[in-house]
Amino acid sequence: MSAIRDFNPSARADAKRDSRYAVVLEQVQKMDWPSGKPMVPGGWAETLATDVVAAIRRHEGRHRLITHHTYEGPGPCTAQFYGTGSCGYPREEHALVEEDEDGVPVAGG
């Protein structure tokens, strides 16, 4: 079962292409317990490094939002993807949100 992450797939892909990603990954992989076993085993090191770089990019204002569909809410987006399930990301991860005549985002866009 996959969990919805804090960062959408586009933001995570951008993080992995960021020039700082390799340095962050190296530092995460170096973290060991006193016994010598890694604190972040296997592929989890890549996941942690990606999320750290994505968080930095968001803080810097370089976070890319979802643009391939319009947010359908309220709550987690319910837009369907070719029979693979719903988007599940929150409204703030979407660039496309329908608004009413006053410019207020409308749930269920």
Short structural description:
32% of the residues lie in helices and 0% in strands. The chain has 109 residues and is mostly helical.
Could you outline the blueprint of secondary structure elements for this entry?
Elements: H1 9-17, H2 21-30, H3 44-59
Multimerization status: single chain
Taking all residues together, what is the mean pLDDT?
Answer: 80
Structural class: mainly alpha
Strand content: under 5%
CA-to-CA gap between the ends? Answer: 27 Å
Q: Kindly state the number of beta strands.
A: 0
Order of helices and strands: HHH
Poorly predicted spans: none
Radius of gyration: 17 Å
Helical coverage, percent range: 25-40%
**Any idea what the shape is?**
elongated
Largest sheet, if any?
Answer: none
Alpha plus pi helix count? 3
